[in-house]
Specification:
By secondary structure, the protein is α+β, with helices and mostly antiparallel strands. It has one domain: Gcn5-related N-acetyltransferase (GNAT) (Aminopeptidase). 26% of the residues lie in helices and 30% in strands. The chain contains three helices and six strands. Strands 1-2-3-4-6-5 form a six-stranded mixed sheet, sandwiched between helices. The chain is globular, with a radius of gyration of 15 Å. The protein starts with a strand and ends with a strand.
Length: 110
């Protein structure tokens, strides 16, 4: 969690573990007025510190370049754990009726 000196929460995130043992950088959020100030970068650095790898994340495809800065890469099909294979199958069905720019990207940090 990221807070101001006064204790106001301005950002949060987590690394969660799935039943298949995979870990996911997830729930990253920064308060609108505090964006573009390095809050997300600081949160990600802290959350990843000391974590067992690989770590996955799911995001909109347009955010891929942001996560590349931390060493994440687009995960190939053979890098997906059972959890992410299920999620990507579901999203392909869901996406059939959505715009291309809404594409889900699964990324991996080794």
């Amino acid at each position: 969690m990221a807070t101001t000196i006064a204790g106001e929460v301005i950002g949060c995130g987590q690394v969660k573990r799935h039943r298949d043992g995979s870990r996911e950088l997830a729930s990253l959020a920064v308060r609108l007025q505090d964006r573009d100030q390095g809050v997300a970068q600081a949160l990600i650095a802290r959350l990843l510190d000391g974590q067992v790898r690989p770590i996955y994340l799911m995001c909109r495809s347009d955010l891929g370049l942001f996560y590349n800065k931390f060493g994440f890469h687009a995960a190939s099909k053979n890098e997906l754990t059972p959890y992410y294979r299920r999620v990507t199958r579901f999203m392909r069905i869901f996406r059939a009726n959505r715009a291309r720019e809404d594409k889900l990207l699964v990324m991996r940090l080794d």
